[in-house]
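Write out this protein's structure.
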Amino acid sequence: MTTATTDTGRAGTVLRHSVRKERPAPITRTAPHRNAAGHDLGTVDLEPTVFGLEPNRAVLHQVVTAQLAAARSGTQSTKTRSEVRGGGAKPFAQKGTGRARQGSSRSPSMTGGGVALGPKPRSYAQRTPRKMVRLALLSALSDRADIGQIIVVDDWKIESPKTKDAATIVRKLKVNGSVLVVLGQDELDVERSFANLPGVETTTFGELSAHDVIRADWLVFSDATLPSAPTDFSGTHVVEEASEAPAKAEQPVKAVKAAKATKAAPKATKAAPKAKAAPKTKAATETEPVAEDVVEPADAASDEEADTDA
C-alpha cells in the first residue's frame, strides 16, 4: 500500500497495481540500408511507434509463453484401469495367500495395470488479447532495433530459386548467428532460396510473431516488408472488422423482426372483422330496409322532374 494525495487535496491509500506507469515517448532509431551485394546505401529511419518503444517485458513473456503453449500438440495419452485389456476376474483368493487383497489385475498398483491420474489429450492454447500480442511484437522489434540488429535490404535480386544466391547474400550482409528474413506473400522464389540454409529462417510479414523475433539474432527486412505503422500488423484490422460485425449483424435481426411483424399483421386484420361481425343487433337489421325505402322515393321524384322539364 502506498499513500497518495488526490486532486481534492485529501490523502488516501492507493493500491500499487492501480498506479499506472508512465512510459517514455517513442524514440526514433535507424537501421543500415544495404543492397543484395552488401553495399552500404545509407540508413533508414525506423518508425518510432514500431521500433522505438520501451519493451514491456511482462507482456512479452506472457505472449511468448502462450505461443509456445499453443505449439504443443497435446496428443499424449495413457490408459486408465477401465481401458486396459483384461482384469475381469479376481486374480487370487481374498484370504490365505499372505498378500494384499486385490480385485483386478489391471489395478494401477499392479504390473500391467492402468495409469492413475495419467495425461490425456488436451489443448494447451491460451487466450491472449490481440492488443497484448501486438504490444509483445512491437516490444521485441524495439529491443532488436535498440541493440542494432536490424538490416533493411532494397531488393533481393533473386529471379529463380537458388540456394547459392541466398548464401551469397547472407555472406555479404555480414550477419552472424541466426537470421530471420521477413518476406512478402508473393516472394516464393526468395523463400525457397533461403530454405536450405542453416541458421536462416524465413517468415512472411503477416505471420511475424514475437517468439520468432526474440529467437533470431538478426532481422532482415526489405523495403517492401519494413513496417511503417503499428496498424500494419495482424490484430488491428481484425479488431476493426469485429467492431463492424455487430452493426452488420443487427440488420438481419431487424429484418427478421420486421418479417415477423408483417406476418402477425394479417392475423390481426383477419381477427378484427370476426370480432365486429359477431355482435349483430335487431336495430341494425331494421335500419337497412328503411334506408332502401328512403332512397327509392328520392330517385322516383328526380325522374318525374326530368319528365316535366322535357
